Amino acid sequence: MDVTADANPRFDLSSALSLVKSIYSLVIVLVLWEAVAQLGLIHYYFLPPLSDIIMRFVELTLNGQMLYNAYLTLMRAMVGLAIASVFGVLVGVLSAQNDLVDWFFDPIIKIGYPVPIISLIPVFMLWFGIGDISKIIMVAVGTFWPVAINARDSTRQVETKLLWSAKMMGTSDRRLLWRVVMPAAMPGILTGFQIAMPLSLIITFVFEMVAGGGGLGALEIAGVRSFESTQVYAAIIAIMLIGIALDRLLRMARGRLLHWT
Amino acid sequence: MGYATSRHIEGLPAPLQRVAGALVDWIPLAIVVVLWDLISGAVVATAILPAPGTVAGKIVELFVTGQVFSHLYISLFRVVVGLGLSIIAGILLGIGMARSDPVENFFDVFLAMTYPIPKTALVPLAILWLGVGTSTAILIVFLACLLPIVLNSYNAAGNVDQNLIWSAEMMGTEGRDVLLKVIFPATIPEILTGIRQAVPIAFVALVSAELIASNQGMGYLILTSGQIGNYPRMFANIVVISAVAFVAVRLFEEVRERWLVWT
Fold first, then answer.
1. Which of B33, B76, B125 has the most A C-beta neighbours within 10 Å, making it the best mutation to test the interface with A?
2. What is the pLDDT of residue A5?
3. Rounded to whole angstroms, how far apart are CA atoms B202 and B144?
4. Residues A103, B4: C-beta atoms closer than 8 Å
5. Is the domain of A67 the same as that of A191?
């Protein structure tokens, strides 16, 4: 909250000016968009007027389609990400703590991480079908790598001085892990989540576009197939809102969890 | 050599250490391949999981018969053009925004709005505009790679040591020359970091676009191999595109190390 606003309720010219500066270009582009589309300078199919898209967005939201598809997409992405987080942090922390685990997983991570994970979608369709389970497993496998790598690297970088001091004061191994290692590695682990989250959405969207089964990706492709471009744009607006919301949420969580840094 | 193995073979003489280290490092992969071979046919039908030997044979066949080349070329072309365009636009935009307030005021809001959109969600929009094919794939690769390059060059150009700029100005360098001869060279390491981040993203974007909106390229080949039930070919093509992505990243890192001698 802006504290100065309370002390000085007068219209704040400079902050209004900076707001104008920061969004004027967006307003110009949106107005141009509406004008060009309304005047018919660009074919309706390529660029429908903004107002039509917003109407379509409202319509899809009111009849529940948008919310249902958004729910499907988010459910798949988040459940997959949650599974990947559990396994990723587990494997990452264990690799950093245990030489045998590290020896086993290091080459697998080296080979597995650069695979363009999207190319495995046909494989998952073959193995697990095209339903929710298949999509969730795909997201889990795809997001496992950044979570595991960041967890491993940040655990490895925990200062040995911290470990020594805790051990000297008689901390048991388990308490050492939960009270010292995990909190010290937490910023790195959260960075892994921040990389994994957009990836989870990418995998879900592409899977939905290729295999259908509802979700915002499928909604977009349905729009393309039925030549309803407003539906494509409306779905992208929803995706943008979800992306912004998730980004904010993760930043907030980071601030909350890492308030001591 | 892996972090773990290096500590267990310290007793050996140096040249042996390296060989032994490399061998020990890659044993886990051999275990995985052996497991794969055992599972395929015994636990899981070979149709669902072809044996590693079958897939390896298929890879050889793809290259010997030359079937893979036309698709591989078109995929590489899309990646190179898309990434190349995003490097040019990204550097211009990043440095422009960092060094000029009007440019920053104009583009900032667009970056803030498009940053949280996963770029592969824009594939259907690209189909609307450009149809199914090469230009759609290039557009998606371009959009996906643009942000990491813009962000890295923006941060770097904003943090150029002011002393460097003052010294150059004092010696008579002006306007555009400061930009070209001082600021741009100073931001090259970060720009390369941005490109390094963009390379794997480029391959993800490429395969996404090719799976959804293409009738050529590796992604298309993988999808259709799966659809007609030629699973060994599907796995073989996945291995090929993964290897290409891996080599691209390694190659870039190698070049960067050689070239960035002054940092």
1. B125
2. 44
3. 7
4. yes
5. yes
**Assigned CATH class of B61-259:** mainly alpha
- The yes-or-no verdict on residue B73 having pLDDT over 50 is yes
Residue at A17 is within a domain: yes
A-chain CB neighbours of B4 within 8 Å are: 99-100, 102-103, 106
The interface residues of chain B toward chain A in range 202-261, judged by CB-CB distance below 8 A, are 203-204, 206-208, 211-212, 218-219, 222-223, 225-227, 231, 234-235, 237-238, 241-242, 245-246, 249
Residues A19 and A125 placed together within one structural domain of the fold: no
Residue to mutate among B106, B230, B247, with most A CBs inside 10 A, is: B106
How far does A260 lie from chain B, in Å, by closest CA?
A: 26
- Share the mean pLDDT of chain B: 86
Residues A136 and A24 in one domain: no
A230/A26 Cα distance (integer angstroms): 20
pLDDT tens for residues A39-74?
888 888 888 999 999 999 999 999 999 999 999 999
Rounded to a whole number, what is the distance in Å from the CA of A24 to chain B's nearest CA?
7
Q: Are residues A110 and A218 in the same domain?
A: yes
Instruction: Determine, for residues A106 and B28 on separate chains, whether the beta-carbon distance falls below 8 Å.
Output: yes
pLDDT tens per residue across span B200-229: 999 999 999 999 988 889 999 999 998 898
Neighbours of A61 (CB within 10 A): 15
Q: Give the per-residue pLDDT at A261.
A: 64
Domain locations along chain B? 5-49, 61-259
What is the complex's ipTM, to 2 decimals?
Answer: 0.85
A22–B105 C-beta distance less than 8 A: yes
The domain containing residue A37 runs over which residues? 3-42
CA distances from B161 to A17, B40, B114, B167, B259 (A): 30, 59, 30, 10, 22
